User: What shape does this take?
Amino acid sequence: MTTFLFWNLHQNNCLDILVRLIHNYKVDVVMLAECTMQITDILLKLNANGGAAFHYNPGECNRIVIISKFSKNKVKPILEDDHMTIRRLKLPDKIDLLLAVVHLQSKLHQSEDSQKISATELAKDIARVEEKEKHKRTLLVGDLNMNPFEHGIVAASGLHATMDRRIAEQGKRKVNAKEYTFFYNPMWSLLGDASEYPPGSYYRRESEQVAYFWHMFDQVLIRPELLSKFENKDLKILETDGHVSFLKNGFPDIKHASDHLPILFRLNC
Assistant: This one.
């Protein structure tokens, strides 16, 4: 079992919280956005008590920090830009994966139309890397700054992510005679207050006529080729590191944790 953690830290210094989170949930691959803490400080704290050593897996995308139990030659960048890094993740004695980690532009700086175009370009980049690597065992993780129901996520020419595993398992579909590969988006099942987790990963109170309040900007999307390795029960929105709550009065504690809640998931590989 391999455990993944993604967290947008909102540029907060919460080193002790992060380290407890990683150790308590036995995380193997840590993906951070808006991380302003020193990498050396994180590694020193993580590796202070022995055990499996963590390594920094460097790349050229400054918006994303990846730290893992795997050496840098096991998490090699293939394609990167300012908002995205796609890595070849070689798990020891296990299958190879493509790990795409993103921090897309905020709604404060991009229109919905621009976000959809950005998602379309991201989908093309992923498809090009998959063609080069000759497989589609791909995970897309990160702060997409879009909800699961927005056009950039669901459109065939976008990320083409569906809420229904059975549909995703069909692999692809044709639209206007062109084939588009599916992603499965399990985050739908956590959107709203009917699950045991918070209603979303990000909260923003707005004064506009249309306000969702809770958003699911932080997501993991899974290609059909990996679905046999994933169970929905292994996906969580975390609200504590086991010691400190990330919520205050039921909403993200921006001061002491972040305006985003971390997401944790596992693959049986």
